[in-house]
Amino acid sequence: MIIVGLTGGIGSGKTTVAKEFNLLGIPVYIADEEAKKLMNRSKIIKRKLIQLFGEKAYINEELNRPYLANIIFNDKSYLEKMNAIVHPKVAKHFQKWVQKQDAPYVIKEVAILFENGGDKACDFIITVVADKALRIKRLLKRDDTTKEKIEAIMKNQWSDEQKINKSDFVINNNTFETTKLQVLRVHNDILQKAGIT
Ligand code: ATP
């Protein structure tokens, strides 16, 4: 199966673009969402996260996100430790999911792809970009957040230039109409490169 990684900075429009691919019949795996589900479902992950963060890591069987976020904010090494527990399980879950798909290729949406070396497991990579001011405006509308928080996250991610340099395709998501056209073009390019058409 051909794996197409879909990435981009916070609020660039990854999920919006992924939905467009899905409308073309392409299965989409949203890695962050699946990781969140596994953190609540998998007994092994739960046990290991409780070992790492303590009993307060879960409240009523649900991951206590604010508690974890606070610990990670004060000591970044906890993020690596948490990823070392969660990422291998998500990778396995993804492999199982891929085996069930019947399509010319699949899309794996991953916010932090290059930063974790996840690009190596992809056949093609699409990076979604949009102007920074537009991303901030869209995120302020979508989430209960602040400009400062968004900018702090942006600083921790690779720049668009770094991502573009290592990508096969770039989709500029400044306007929805042009995004749709680019998705169609990239879809056809992937099919052609993969020798499917
Ligand atoms: P995150 O980094 O948080 O995972 P994301 O990259 O997946 O975000 P989306 O959730 O797709 O980004 O988009 C962020 C917000 O911007 C959403 O509310 C979405 O509806 C809006 N949005 C995305 N693309 C466009 C567009 N082309 N025109 C208008 N609004 C858009």
Overall description:
- This protein is of the alpha/beta class.
- It has 2 domains: 1-27 and 105-191, Rossmann fold, CATH 3.40.50; 32-100, Rossmann fold (3-Layer(aba) Sandwich), CATH 3.40.50.300.
- The protein is 56% helix and 14% strand.
- The protein is built from 9 helices and 7 strands; from the N terminus they run βαβααββααββαααβα.
- The protein has helices at 14-23, 31-41, 43-53, 65-74, 77-100, 132-142, 147-156, 160-165, 176-193, and strands spanning 3-8, 28-30, 58-59, 62-63, 106-109, 124-129, 169-172.
- The strands form 2 sheets. A 5-stranded parallel beta sheet has the order 2-5-1-6-7, with helices on both faces.
- β3 and β4 (62-63) form a beta hairpin.
- The longest helix has 24 residues, at 77-100.
- It is globular.
- The relative contact order is 0.21.
- The model has no long low-confidence stretch (mean pLDDT 95).
- Bound molecules: adenosine-5'-triphosphate.
Descriptive labels:
7 strands, globular, 197 residues, single chain, alpha/beta, binds adenosine-5'-triphosphate, two-stranded antiparallel ribbon, Rossmann fold, 56% helix, 2 domains, five-stranded parallel β-sheet
Q: Work out the number of β strands.
A: 7
The structural domain count equals 2
Structural class designation: alpha/beta
**Taking Cα atoms only, what radius of gyration do you get, to the nearest Å?**
18 Å
Main location: cytoplasm
InterPro entries: Depp_CoAkinase (IPR001977), P-loop_NTPase (IPR027417)
Organism: Flaviramulus multivorans
Keywords: ATP-binding, Coenzyme A biosynthesis, Cytoplasm, Kinase, Nucleotide-binding, Transferase
